[in-house]
Amino acid sequence: MLVEDMSNEDYHAHPAISSSAVKTISTKSILHWKNAVYKDNSAFDLGTAVHAMVLEPEKDLVLCGPENRRGKLWTSAREEAQLEGKTVLTQEDYAICLAMVNSVMSNSAAVDLVSDLCAVKEVSIFGTDKETGLALKARPDIFIPERGILVDLKTTRDASPKRGGFERQFFSLGYHIQAAFYKYVLELAGYPIEDFIFLAVEKEPPYAVQIHNLHSDVLDEGLYQVRQVLRQIKDAADNGTESTGWPPQNTILLPKWMKATDRIDDMTDHMITNVEALWPRIDRTYRFDQAEKRSVPCEPIDDGSSYTIQFRMTSGQAKELFTHMAKAYTEAREDAWPEQIEVPFKKDDETGTYTGKATIKGSYGKEATRKPNLYDAGGNKLPEEFLLTTGSTVNVAVAFFPYNMREAGVSLRLRAVQVIKYVAMEERNPFGAVEGYVHSPDDNPFKPEPLIEDAFVEEAEEAPVEQVVEKAPPLKVVKSKAASKAKPKADIDEGFSNIIDNWD
Length: 504
Description:
Layout: E1 2-3, H1 8-13, H2 19-27, H3 30-34, H4 42-55, E2 62-64, H5 71-83, E3 87-89, H6 91-105, H7 108-114, E4 120-121, E5 124-128, E6 135-138, E7 142-144, E8 149-156, H8 166-172, H9 175-188, E9 195-202, E10 209-213, H10 216-239, H11 263-267, E11 270-289, E12 294-297, E13 306-313, H12 315-332, E14 346-347, E15 354-361, E16 363-364, E17 367-368, E18 373-375, E19 393-404, E20 408-421, H13 494-501
Parallel strand pairs: 2-3, 8-9, 18-20
Antiparallel strand pairs: 1-5, 4-7, 5-6, 7-8, 9-10, 11-12, 11-13, 11-19, 13-15, 14-15, 16-17, 19-20
Helix pairs in contact: 2-9, 2-10, 4-6, 9-10
């Protein structure tokens, strides 16, 4: 059943099960749903206001109120707005709301959905679950019956399609459950749905807009969880139980998205190519021993443990690397940070070369860090026991991490190493050739005589053992990218330009 012009208050008062109830039970418990208490939330008000101004601008449902949420002035404005069924915002939030709405309406694809002549908005739809007999309700933001499209408008911190962007929020907030529930209820009411679209707009400048379509697998997984929750609600109603139903203990598992095979590319900001490896310590973790005044092997969770590689660069390579580091620092720099950093490389005045270093801690929060991978020139992952040697030519994948602590700089966090030319390890011999005894394999007085029965023992020829090398995608050269908290600044400030222009 489809009901138009049903007020938001009447819809929420209806006893049918909503998608919010299903999400709450799925992520928490029936007890959390039954005992839910509404709390005043400015972020909720902002989302409500954006919805009203995008979906129903003709109703004038949003008011610009006082400067802040304190005092009698705000209380009075809030009470008056509630009586009129409207949302009141502070002056700052109202300006943000307008900017978000303008961003949405400046997106042609978004306008196509919002302004569709056949679209119905904020319509209430009811259905009955065939298995449990539970009454269900849904109130989609936009429903286009002729196209079989449902659209949900979301205000979000990150609307980007990148891994870790909207996708992460999407699943953590149960949006896949909401989408599947809406689709299910509409189909119960006789409205087949072909596509579910999330229209995401960011709550911070530049208020970016992104349209997200859902794969059928996402909706299938969401529907599975919907069915589990509906059965849970039915069982609780039949048995009169409203507990959390939680186990005594729980084990946290690594999410699937954290097991992706392309993480190196995702986390790499820059590739340092064709440099000479110096004292690589990436076969295992090392720490600096103050008593011995040298690096010693250690466990990954030991204090000061790290994987490290130093590398020798030409002047041109050092200049290029510092240029990228300077750009990353400039883009991430906050007001209290120094305007520029010093060149972090050690210069050899005799050869004109520079030495840099990339490192990654052995552990974070007492959890061991994943060991940086080693690859050969063909992109094949090298065995765990492979020992990289000084003098080998390598590519080094790093991520830039600008910082300002006791001093400011950009650290090179080690991601992976690709071996281009390998220098075989040589055994150190402190002696040179002198006149005297030279050993021959046939000159061994201690060699035992073979037993007679040994002649009758046929030695089996040992089959050669084929070394299996794990294949992995070749490392890609990834262009430098801005730090996640970057502020709009010039590519490289004047101070850095002077350093780079006057290199050497």
